[in-house]
Amino acid sequence: MANKIFAAVTSNEYGQYDGLIQIVLPVLGKTGVAHLKARLSEALAKRPKGNESRYDSQASRLTHALQAIADGEGDVDAYIALTPAQRRRAPSIAAEIARRLLAAGRADEAMAALREGAPRERQQADDHKRLAFYSLSGDYEWDEAYINALLATDQQKEAQKMRWAGFERYLSADRLRAYLKTLPDFEDVIAEEKAMHYALRFRDATSALNFLIEWPNTWQAEKLILARHAEIDGNAYSLLDQAARKLEGEHPLAATVLRRAMIDDTLERAKSGRYRHAARHLLECQSLDRDINDYDSFETHASFVARIRTKHSRKTGFWARVSELSGVRTA
């Protein structure tokens, strides 16, 4: 069995055997694991050395297999030893090592590993306490591991600073939830309101919309859409379609604005492969028209249709889709 596993993981060119070792490790027994480990180690030792700039896919497969065994045996030191010193300075690798050290109850060593692999903006910090103020830049996974290391070393206040800074940097709903969860009653409400106002002013309107829909806060999402509609990326189809569906019940104008953004993007760039979807969005806008009493500064549905019909009259493929879906002749 160990020989078969060795043959599989060393021919794992397409990742088809990823996770295999974790599955079979319990049934191999000590003898089988020892034999597999010996074969993998021997094969790794025979790989060419001296050219670190050239990627060795076979060496990588062997290393990952040995690290999987180390994880299965709970041997953190073996896992770390299989990671070249230079790679340990990469934030994502440092985070992987730190997670294992934290699970083993070795928080101080986890902190040291994270300092060694800190993103460049943080390496100038004098100590770990100052690192909390640098989390507006850098690696998300590293941040997460560092927060857990702070918590494991009883530094809740510093962890809270990093959670909030991480929310500001990434508009991370997970970071904000973790931040609010530790606050006393009423303080969490005030902090959440502050976070919503921050999201409304976030430098990228599409990212802000994504956060507000994920949170969810549809009332603030409506406010964002109506105030910053020109900044929203009409090419973000997956987000905008999902957001429109969530908003259309209580906020039909905001949902319409999002669908118009997708329609405009499709027609302006002549994305014929999306004409069917754009036609559906147009009919959805028509359906919502009766629920909108005041378009405010936005075009009415009739004005919008008239504009795109004039501007994009030659895009017959789109209008044919509209006709097909509506059952009404459009030409």
Characteristic terms for this protein:
331 residues; mainly alpha; 3 domains; 18 helices
Helix-strand layout with pairing:
Layout: H1 2-9, H2 20-45, H3 57-73, H4 76-81, H5 91-103, H6 107-116, H7 128-131, H8 140-152, H9 156-170, H10 173-181, H11 187-200, H12 205-214, H13 218-228, H14 237-247, H15 252-268, H16 275-289, H17 301-311, H18 316-326
Helix pairs in contact: 1-2, 2-3, 5-6, 5-8, 6-8, 8-9, 9-10, 12-13, 13-15, 14-15, 15-16, 16-18
Overview of this structure, please?
- This protein is an all-alpha fold and 331 residues long.
- The protein folds into three domains: 1-82, no CATH class; 86-182, no CATH class; 211-331, no CATH class.
- It has 18 helices and no strands.
- The chain has helices at residues 2-9, 20-45, 57-73, 76-81, 91-103, 107-116, 128-131, 140-152, 156-170, 173-181, 187-200, 205-214, 218-228, 237-247, 252-268, 275-289, 301-311, 316-326.
- The protein is extended and about 75 Å long.
- Mean pLDDT is 92; it is low at 124-138.
| Tally of individual domains | 3
Strand share of the residues?
under 5%
The low-confidence parts are 124-138
Biggest beta-sheet profile: none
Q: Average pLDDT, to the nearest integer?
A: 92
What is the radius of gyration?
27 Å
Task: Give the structural class.
Answer: mainly alpha
Count of β-strands: 0
User: What characteristic shape results from the CA principal axes?
Assistant: extended
Distance separating the two termini: 69 Å
Q: State the helicity in percent bands.
A: 55-70%
